[in-house]
Amino acid sequence: MAQAEMDTGRRADALVSFVVPVYNVRDELGECLDSILSQTGDFEVIAVDDASPDDSGEILDDYARADPRIRVLHLSENVGLGGARNAGLAAARGTHVWFVDSDDWVAPGSLEALTPVLGDDPVVMFDYERSYPDGTVEPNPRSAALRPATTLDDNLALLTILPVVWNKVYRRDWLAEHGFTFANGYYEDVAWTYPVLVTARPIAVLARVCYRYRQGRASSILGAADRRHFDVFAQYDRVFAYLDAHPEYDEFRVPLFDRMLRHYAMLLTLPDRIPPTQHREFFLTAAESYRRHEPPAWRIPRGTTGIKPRAFAWGSYRAFRLAHAVSRIAE
User: Fold this and answer.
1) Helix H segments across 67-187?
2) What confidence tens digit (pLDDT) does each residue in 245-269 have?
3) Assigned CATH topology for domain 3-222
């Protein structure tokens, strides 16, 4: 993968490197970059043009000519979101790294608020909110899990927060020490987030909204019902392969297995994810994943919360559909 970099002669390091992968986002890109450049603090921006077919690359070059804090990497071929993030991470010079998706934006004053927290802790988590096209803003439903400096050992609720890369700032040397990189395929955030969370000691927390997560973008995978969602199985394979390679984190196998099953069930029950003609196939693949990764200590929950996990264990799509119907009635 060849790449060309626009170098404007900036200094060798910064406190934070914003890594922004860019692909076909000409309409949203300016808002994202402006939100970063308006931050107060010591930072650089590594913008990665992932061989975008629109004029996003030209927009990046225009911004870089106007602001020396921006470096642009032009990839010669499309490598996907994970590969573009890896390219940006390799080029970063900051002591910390913040991955920002190019159709989202950073809330005003966020870097200034985060700066006092960015120290020796390998990971700093912060809050986010969803932003809809009609101007509606929806808070993170799991904000209560963001308690001060902690680890998963005493706050497993951190696993219930959306498994995304962009609601954290990472110490760059710590990422290099542990060899963290992004996998290919969709849902790549899963295979990054869970290994990072089980490994980080401690995890610092800033209970402040620092990120705006854009909803309703037509080209997003979250708005497309197609086979790309089957990539989720390979990503969870990577999560459990990481646990297999690090038995010191075995205590997290059961809660991560629970998160995996909830994720599969969610994808099967939301109308804009799996095409209806592929529901049974997706379910049966999920049941295979259940059998492949079931921890010895796992116990199916009692009551209605255990109906869907039991359906996965049985490999019964009919039982899963019945469980979903029961849960909808209970709501």
Assistant:
1) 80-91, 110-114, 172-178
2) 999 999 999 999 999 999 999 999 9
3) Spore Coat Polysaccharide Biosynthesis Protein SpsA; Chain A (3.90.550)
